[in-house]
Design brief:
Elements lengths: L3 E5 L3 E6 L2 E8 L9 H12 L2 E6 L16 H15 L4 E6 L1 H12 L4 E7 L5 H9 L2 H10 L1 E6 L2 E7 H9 L7 E2 L4 E6 L7 H10 E2 L3 E6 L9 H15 L2
Helix pairs in contact: 2-3, 4-6
């Protein structure tokens, strides 16, 4: 199958495979993009089976236009919904990695009739308020309040910018403060050696979701990315389990 590429509204870079449904949409994490190993593994898996697949970059990420520091959870969710509406048809399986899991949950709340299933890979809903802000020192909180941005060390590359707008908007986009109805099967893959999103956070999400078909798979030696060969096999098996049900 040949992958098509383009830009939605001249801004959002995307790549897709046309094929049978339900389609699959991959949502990357914070500062990640559609060229990551999980996105490519899912693309190849779907291509081999003739299934529709879409990957894209949020504004300020990867090949899309915009500045990363201008983005918020609300803006990136709007990007994802625009891509869903314009580039896909029928029910879709949302596969969200880290922040992408949060955005997928917001998409499911906004477009419940379009969501066939949700797979979260170390999903990080509400991470700005429940994981980031509590971990900041008083000095960091003061800096982000006065300067509007701080830069945090990252084991994945250059320091990570975190803006006050991201923190403030994140509080408005919360999905963990009230029961979260999801009218679809839910699968969560979570590493227990994840230094960024503790596995207990996945338990909180499971408790919040209102759905009958919810399963949490804990990978005892898994890290945050869950992109080792065995992790990618698990992801593909999880997807096929949903599609063949």
């Amino acid at each position: 199958m040949r992958e098509e590429t383009g830009r939605l509204d001249g801004r959002l870079a995307w790549a897709r495979l046309r094929g049978k449904g339900p389609g699959v949409i991959f949502l990357p994490g914070y500062r990640s993009d559609m060229q990551g190993s999980k996105a490519i593994a899912l693309r190849d898996h779907c291509a081999a089976r003739g299934r529709a697949f879409l990957r894209f970059d949020y504004s300020g990420h990867g090949e899309s236009a915009g500045h990363f520091e201008d983005g918020t959870i609300g803006q990136w969710t709007a990007d994802a919904i625009a891509v869903l509406d314009a580039l896909t048809e029928g029910p879709q399986v949302l596969v969200g990695s880290s922040m992408g899991g949060w955005i997928a949950l917001l998409m499911a709340r906004a477009r419940p009739d379009r969501i066939a299933a949700f797979i979260g890979i170390a999903p990080a809903p509400d991470f700005t308020e429940t994981l980031m802000w509590p971990a900041f020192t008083e000095a960091q909180r003061a800096e982000i309040t006065t300067r509007g941005v701080i830069h945090l060390p990252s084991q994945y590359g250059d320091p990570t910018p975190v803006t006050r707008a991201l923190i403030e908007d994140g509080a408005r986009q919360s999905v963990l403060k009230a029961p979260l109805p999801l009218p679809c099967p839910v699968r969560i893959l979570q590493g227990m050696r994840d230094p960024d999103v503790p596995w207990q956070h996945a338990l909180r999400l499971v408790e919040t979701i209102q759905a009958d078909d919810v399963r949490l798979h804990l990978v005892k030696d898994g890290d945050h990315r869950l992109s080792r060969p065995q992790d990618l096999v698990l992801l593909a098996e999880t997807l096929e389990g949903l599609l063949s049900a």
